[in-house]
Amino acid sequence: MRTQPYPVPNRNVFRSRGAAVLAVATAWLAACGGAEEPTSLAEGSETASNGAAGGPGPALSQPARDEGFIEGEVEVGGACASEVASETFASAVCSCEDVNVAGFLRTTRFRSRPAPSAAGEELTGGSVGVNRDYFTAGYADVAGNFTVAGDRDVAFGGYLKAGADIRANPELDVAGLVRVGRDAFLKSDARVIGRVEIGRDLYMDAGAAFNGIALLDVGGERRTQAVEIEPPCPCAAGEIIDVAALVDQAEADNDNARVGLDPDELGLVVGIGAETTLPSGRYFVRELGGVGSFTLHVEGKVALFVANDWIATGLFRVELAPDAELDVFVRGNLLVTGAASFGDPERPSATRIYVGGTGDVAIAGASAFVGNLYAPAANVLIGGVGKVYGSLFGKNVVAAGFLDLGYDLSVRDGGRDCPPVDAGDIPRIE
User: Fold this and answer.
1) Where are any strands of DSSP class E within 181-324?
2) Could you state, in order of their start, the residue ranges of all structural domains in the chain?
């Protein structure tokens, strides 16, 4: 593993700069209004080592350990990393609290590689779940289920579409078209000026009604019954993954020695053209990132555990081999500025990032974000063009303009050859 032999700046100075960048990004996002019309994510496709300065690093020819949970898999806690991902990233967007989209929200779905999948998973792929309130001034076009469990009224300008079910606790105001592919469950009133098309059944609470001027077309039955909308995202005590505990486990049990990886090697990298290559295995580092340009080559199934923060302030690039996968567990915070690339937009299911910190995760810039992000204690702030390949799971999800997200169904295919995840396999925060 070779990094550039440039002096490393004072760590506290670097942290201060990172905090300043995050503050600027957050202020910018809060001040932004509207958005341009995006280029749609078409459904079905979209389409190293550390040696002495100037010298070669240790060879990486020896294989990383292969005593993962099963052959060909990397272990996280007591389960396969791919199985953990399949359960964690079941929706395109999930928020423990609110979602705020200033413009409009659109999710599509595609499959990056062929694999057997249940029909129900295909239908609900690209779902959006909001445990509390949804704020918007635009429209929503969701490929799967759309669930809002909060109380605050939601007003859509244009239309509201869901490819599967709509489950709404608050009152809905729609000027335009409402289209539901399967069933609609409404706890409160719906005021619509336009047309309502429901593919199957309409379930309305006894106190709810349709108001406004609307043509209502229900393909199945209209049912009046008690409707209760449960929070769709697993954010309660005992449900949130304890990233810090997983990092602690990896500090004591990792494959660093096999490839000659020093825990301080990938933190605060400075220079142009720095790079590191990791074969299959579990690796522990104290920090990840730096300034300048840095490329992380992933040659197999890799789990990378970061004790502090991941700060990608320059050109940070993850390059995956054809069958490679990367899971990154960050105890602290994730700061993304500049031209960061975390994977292949044609295979976003292969990159999964778990963040345990409470600092805002700001995804800004002109390039699309690639990967599946889990940050249940952090606000996920989306700026720039608002295009994501993968999925987002945050405390709050905030898009300054629009959010156009292409969900890779293949993330739900992971771990099919692994034993089922037991309740005690992955540590959770109580």
Assistant:
1) 184-186, 190-198, 202-204, 210-211, 214-218, 222-224, 240-241, 269-278, 281-285, 288-298, 301-306, 310-312, 315-320
2) 11-42+72-149+230-429, 150-229
